[in-house]
């Protein structure tokens, strides 16, 4: 008795086509997701350094106190990690979604709570405002969300 269900051919073909789109071509049209751009690589290294130098020494204290140290919150704002995908004209870093993921990953290696904090702020709050906010709302709130307001 065969317990495996048959996969429609179109799903297989679509999957292969998507994989091919992400692979580097001889023309250099599209690179693989495993190949970081220079900006992505620099951001990853910068966030890793920030996490090791400014967050790691405070992790035990924050765990014991059950709250973030104010210097950690200040550091993530000052380093542009709270508006990673927001246009620079609105106070953000102007990077792509992969850069957000790389930053969250590097932060989470040192303190998963700080990684989750930055992730939730960027991918739930800020991205929602970017997608469904009116231009007036974006102009009013994105600079503050990117530079000073912590989402709750």
Automatic annotation (TrEMBL):
What InterPro entries does the entry give?
AcylCoA_DH/ox_N, AcylCoA_DH/ox_N_sf, AcylCoA_DH/oxidase_NM_dom_sf
Which parts of the chain are coiled coil? none
Gene Ontology terms for molecular function: acyl-CoA dehydrogenase activity; flavin adenine dinucleotide binding
Q: Which SUPFAM superfamilies match?
A: Acyl-CoA dehydrogenase NM domain-like (SSF56645)
This protein's pathway: Lipid metabolism
Instruction: List, alphabetically, the GO terms of the cellular component aspect.
Output: mitochondrion
User: Could you tell me the keywords of this UniProt record?
Assistant: Fatty acid metabolism, Lipid metabolism, Oxidoreductase
Q: Which residues belong to any copy of the Acyl-CoA dehydrogenase/oxidase N-terminal domain?
A: 37-146
GO biological-process terms attached to the record:
fatty acid metabolic process
Q: Does the keyword Lipid metabolism apply?
A: yes
- What is the name attached to this protein's record? Short/branched chain specific acyl-CoA dehydrogenase, mitochondrial
From what organism does this protein derive? Ceratitis capitata (Mediterranean fruit fly)
């Amino acid at each position: 008795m065969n317990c495996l269900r048959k996969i429609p051919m179109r799903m297989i073909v679509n999957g292969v086509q998507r994989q091919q789109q992400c692979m580097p071509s001889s023309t250099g049209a599209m690179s693989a997701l495993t190949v970081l751009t220079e900006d992505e690589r620099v951001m990853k290294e910068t966030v890793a350094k920030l996490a090791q130098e400014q967050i790691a020494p405070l992790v035990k204290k924050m765990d014991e106190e059950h709250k973030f140290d104010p210097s950690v919150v200040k550091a993530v704002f000052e380093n542009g990690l709270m508006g990673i995908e927001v246009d620079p004209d609105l106070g953000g870093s102007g990077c792509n979604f992969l850069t957000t993921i790389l930053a969250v990953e590097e932060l989470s290696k040192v303190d998963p709570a700080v990684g989750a904090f930055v992730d939730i702020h960027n991918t739930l709050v800020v991205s929602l405002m970017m997608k469904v906010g009116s231009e007036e709302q974006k102009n009013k709130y994105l600079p503050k969300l990117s530079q000073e307001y912590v989402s709750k």
